[in-house]
Amino acid sequence: MTDRHEQDAGNGREQPVDWEARGAVARLVLGQMATQALGTAVRLGVFDRIGPDELSAGALAGSLGTHPQATLRLLRALAGLQLLSETEPGAFRTTTAGDALRADTPGTMVAMARMFTDPVMLRGWDLLDESVRTGETTFDTVFGTDFFGHLKEHPELSASFNEAMSQGTRLTAATVPHHYDFGRFHTLVDIGGGDGTLLASVLREHPKLRGVLFDTAEGLAQAPRRLAQEGLTKRVTLETGDFFASAPAGGDLYLLKSIIHDWDDERCAAILRHIRDVVPDHGSLLIVEPVLPATVPPDRQDNVYLSDLNMLVNVGGRERTADDFAALCTAGGFALRSVTPLPAPNIFQIVEASPV
């Protein structure tokens, strides 16, 4: 290979190199380094320390107790990732993207960034080739227990996970209440609803609706504070339980947001059957998840396919197509009624099903 051309083995002619394509591949090859730089910056509190103003690398190193030159090199790497801008040699401010990594910014993603760059989320990925060969999770291999069992044993990590899920749900929570007719129901049961971010958003928009928030004790740990902040304590009942064992009765609308993709088909069908046992015949089921198209769109980059691999590596679930959801609903005693995409940039869709 020459500097600018490659030899075509078939006809002996030199063929032009697509340097843009090679650059795209290089960015992917170095992607893990970008993740580690971002994770380190979040754990050190770099974006919060810089804040809304400008700060020098030396001043930042002094406040963090880090090595001055190494700090400068980290900040320049972050500028190369367009999370910071270097306004003059050694002086930095956050970009719009970097602002999303400050805790004091509306719509902050700092908890999500911290969780998804944590070794607990990343170490299983080191064995992705094993997952691809076997179809099994590698999280269990690395940590000796399943993902949610590990969270149960580490309350601080569980709280971080809950906050990350809350942050990841906020865009969907702001959108879902306006894209479904919740007003025709009287009690919404949010299965696996965590701190109640989505449930609270729906109840704010529909003041006659009552809610039930159902999750494990670990999942509900931050819910009382969230509901109190929203002024919804009297309209929501908290119920602790295991959705593989039962679902709470009393609702006419049941909601599963980002639950189905965590589990294999057999476990998902078990969750749905427990809901079918308690939902009235006139009730409905909503599943809020990404819905994969039949084929990957050639002109769109979509993180949902990386999420699909994350489900494989860490929890044993998967993202699904509309046909997959229809089959799951049938196995759980429901019939798929509709699939409604939420407006971009949301990647989620509302899958509605009726009891049969």
Automatic annotation (TrEMBL):
| Entry keyword annotation includes Nucleotide-binding | no
- Domain of life, per UniProt, equals Bacteria
Domain O-methyltransferase dimerisation, first and last residues per copy: 27-101
Keyword annotations of the record: Methyltransferase, S-adenosyl-L-methionine, Transferase
- Residue intervals of the O-methyltransferase C-terminal domain: 125-334
Q: Which InterPro entries match?
A: COMT-like, COMT_C, COMT_dimerisation, SAM-dependent_MTases_sf, WH-like_DNA-bd_sf, WH_DNA-bd_sf
S-adenosyl-L-methionine as UniProt keyword: yes
Q: Which Pfam families match?
A: Dimerisation, Methyltransf_2
Q: Per its record, how is this protein called by name?
A: Acetylserotonin O-methyltransferase
Organism listed in the record? Streptomyces anulatus (Streptomyces chrysomallus)
